[in-house]
Amino acid sequence: MTKILKIEKLSESNLVNTAVFAAVWGLAEISIGTFLHASKIPFRGAIMSLAAIMILVCARSVINYKGSLILLGIVTATFRLFLGVGFNITPFIAILLESLIAEIVLNKFGYNRITCVITGAAIMVYTLLHGLIMQAVFLGMDIYKIYYELVLSFTNKIGLDENIVIIILLSVPFIHLITGALSASLGLSVGRQIQNLMENAK
Amino acid sequence: MKYLIGLVVLSVIILPAELVIAVSIIAMIVYSQIDISLLGLFKRKSIYFLFTIVVILQPMIIGEPVNKFLGLDYSADAFVNGIAMFCRAVVIISSITLINRSTSREHVKAFWKQRGLEEFDNVLQKAEEILPDIKSGFNKVRKENNSIKSVLRNPSELLAKMIYPLLHKSEKLAPNNTINEE
Q1: Residue-wise pLDDT tens digits, A143-183
Q2: B51 phi and psi angles, rounded to 5 deg
């Protein structure tokens, strides 16, 4: 059997702290995720990703063993799979890939505000692509053509200028990147505050 | 069984539109014999929204509108393609739901353990144990800071206060750019 990640024995503190962040993320997924699922508001995945970015970046300040964020993601994804409402496989994949992105960026380039902001932005880029990829898997590549034609016929009907349509469409990834960066920055601040509290308690 | 479901999913992804419709009908009949509740998918409003877009609207905006129905021009090719897209989505969702329902927590634990995550089970168990403490701890901090003004004043401090009491205190802190190899 292929060993994708070897994490054999964790110290008591690493085990507890990984479990704490997994429980926090799992709680967010189940409570906010359920609310968003019921409300049917657009960009539900992006909202959940912002919470994920904050938790992943914050967790990295406390749990720093190799593969920690992947293990955190796997435990949270399992929570989501068994306790979440609705169709859980797409959030399951999203959680795993978000934690993988955070693990790669933060372990490769270090843990500071710039790398955290890059992590947040990278996760939000993935979130944007996630919906498009999943729709292509479920419906086929033709779905992009349908969306394009629908947008085109709608904008033609209401007489919207092509440039305005392009600006509106480009603003979506831009907002994703900015909010991802802000969420990562907040996560880093929370992580630093936790580190300060731990230092003061010593 | 799971390999057969995998084969069905793969078939509906790669087969041409006409064959996808036939395979999907057979697959859904078999699936409904295994678990009739899978047909509950058709009670969801979102499935009819999808149907409207890919089966009704698509033939009117995509392809050559050489056919006519109730005075509306549409493309027969796009209509067949739309039905195939709808069938593909229904079969993939049903297949994944069926696999999901037949997968127990024990299967998932064994799966990750086989892939090198020896501690997965312990972390999951611990996370489940502390979930009620997290809920009550968060509620306590939220009640103490119930005004939006106090939340916005320093959100990072507030979030840190929520998480910090739950953490194991002897943990070495993460310095910049280092990994504590286990």
Answers
A1: 888 888 888 878 888 887 778 888 888 899 999 999 999 99
A2: -60, -45
Which residues in chain B touch residue A153, judged by CB atoms under 8 angstroms apart?
61
User: Looking at the partner chain, which of A5, A9, A87 has a beta carbon nearest the beta carbon of B116?
Assistant: A5
Which residue on chain A is closest to B17 by alpha carbon? A140
CB B91 within 8 A of CB B28: yes
Print the SS3 string covering chain B: CHHHHHHHHHHHHHCCHHHHHHHHHHHHHHHHHHCHHHHHHHHCHHHHHHHHHHHHHHHHHCCCCCEEECCEEECHHHHHHHHHHHHHHHHHHHHHHHHHHHCCHHHHHHHHHHCCECCHHHHHHHHHHHHHHHHHHHHHHHHHCCCHHHHHHCHHHHHHHHHHHHCCCCCCCCCCCCCCCC
CB-CB under 8 Å, A8 with B119 = yes
pLDDT per residue, tens digit, chain A (202 aa), is 556 667 768 788 889 999 999 999 999 888 888 888 777 788 888 999 999 999 999 999 998 888 899 999 999 998 888 876 666 788 889 999 999 999 999 989 999 999 999 999 999 999 999 988 888 888 888 888 888 888 887 888 888 777 888 888 889 999 999 999 999 999 999 999 999 888 887 6
The answer to whether A176 touches A50, Cβ cutoff 8 Å, is: no
Find tokens 């300060």 and name the residue.
Answer: A196
Of B61, B120, B160, the CB nearest to A71: B120
Structural domain boundaries in chain A: 13-201
The SS3 of residue A7 is strand
Residue B182 host element (H or E): none
CB distance A26–B131 less than 8 Å?
Answer: yes
Which residues pair with residue B67 across a beta bridge?
A: B74
ipTM of the complex: 0.83
How many Cα atoms within 13 Å fall on the side-chain side of residue B129?
A: 12
Domain boundaries, chain B: 2-103, 118-166
* Chain segment B60-73, per-residue pLDDT in tens: 887 777 777 777 78
